[in-house]
Amino acid sequence: MTESVRQLGALMRKEFLLEWRQRYALNGMLLYIVGAVFVCYLSFNARRGQLTPIVWNTLFWIIQLFTAINAIAKSFVQERAGRQLYYYTLASPQQIILAKIGYNTALMGVLAVLGFCTYAFVLGSPIADIPLYLLTLALGAVGFSASLTLVSGIASKAENPATLMAVLSFPIILPLLLLLLKVSKNAMDGLDRSVSWSEVGTILAIDAIVLTLSWLLFPFLWRS
Amino acid sequence: MKKNWWKGLAVLILTYVILQGLVGGVPRQPILNESIRNVYFHVPLWFGMIIMLLTSAVYSIRYLRNGRFDDDGVAVEFANTAILFGFLGCLTGALWANFTWGEPWPNDPKLNSVAVGMLMYLAYLILRGSFDDEQRRARISAVYNIFAFAVFVPLIFVVPRLTDSLHPGNGGNPAFGKYDMDSQMRMVFYPAVIGFTLLGVWITELRVRLRRVKAVLEE
């Protein structure tokens, strides 16, 4: 048990190191989300507080979704096949997928917070219940990375990974996205938190389902 | 002949369902009026679709467990028939909605969920198309199929119930089991579910056999 936890830690550390050494990719993603926010800001030509709450919220989550897809799509194409084979001789596939999901969650968390800050900075923040909104950001980071990591693994095996990644992940991510939109809208309106708990529970349940499935299915994926 | 009794059963049941659906007695309901007959066609198509998607996922699991190509073929054909049933379900539903809700595609969470579900399975077919290597295609699309079914279930059964839907059984509306259907209608409705499912299995069986024949001819 402790051994596998140690291996998991080593794999996660490897992911972080790899990202840090290829800083251009990380910087690219940071710039991507800031750029996307700014494009939306200028396209709407909105002064602070002019967007209605629904538009504000939806636009933010759409930006999050596209950032997530772009950031996670590269989690399997970054390394060459030979090196991946080498990892598989060292660790079990379950550990590899968990390490990737863990790393992607951290990455998505950073991107979400950065995106949120930029977004609130340029477009103003009409949020009444900020802790709950941050909780939805965290739940979103876990859910996006759990479901998109496996999809990116699937897409990376095919001929045109980029298109396939989008086609496969949009419908898969939608239930999660709708629930996140609902809870974050509740947080914006400052509704009583008891209203949101059932949705938070459902989001957690969906997160659990996709995590378990990634854990179960990834061993079949890497063998090919 | 002994092995094919269920095909006869399907024909028998569907004849009964169509006859009952067109001329049988139905209770008079406000708004629904005669369009309640659609419950014999629209709802069983969806039930059949979900049963077939489940079967497809089960065959994908079987493929991953034993690696027989045939199981993957069965899985994809079940998914194909389910998509066909899904389109027919949309069509009958649009017809029905046009008369009861005033427009063929009202902005209803259940409709949108189902549309997304269909996108998911169309993506499955596209995924299959993007591999050259057969073994790889079978394995990876089996993985995706299982994943897709696991997301499809909350999409269809959980998300519409969290919001308001026009469909019975969602958003606090009573399910049709409660009082929309009397016992006479149930005598048609439950056989209709079985009949349409059997029809789906029949279509799938034909396509699977065609696939097997083609596979043998290619060798």
TrEMBL record, chain A:
Keywords: Membrane, Transmembrane, Transmembrane helix. One of its GO terms (biological process) is cytochrome complex assembly. It is found in: Membrane. It comes from the Bacteria. The chain crosses the membrane at residues 24-44, 56-77, 97-121, 133-155, 162-181, 201-222. One of its GO terms (molecular function) is heme transmembrane transporter activity. Belongs to the CcmB/CycW/HelB family. This is ABC transporter permease.
From TrEMBL, chain B:
Residues 13-160 form the Cytochrome c assembly protein domain. GO terms for molecular function: heme binding; heme transmembrane transporter activity. Keywords: Cytochrome c-type biogenesis, Membrane, Transmembrane, Transmembrane helix. InterPro entries: Cyt_c_assembly, Cyt_c_biogenesis_CcmC, Cyt_c_biogenesis_CcsA/CcmC. It is found in: Membrane. GO terms for cellular component: plasma membrane. One of its GO terms (biological process) is cytochrome complex assembly. The chain crosses the membrane at residues 40-61, 73-99, 111-131, 143-163, 183-204. It is a multi-pass membrane protein. Required for the export of heme to the periplasm for the biogenesis of c-type cytochromes. Belongs to the CcmC/CycZ/HelC family. This is Heme exporter protein C.
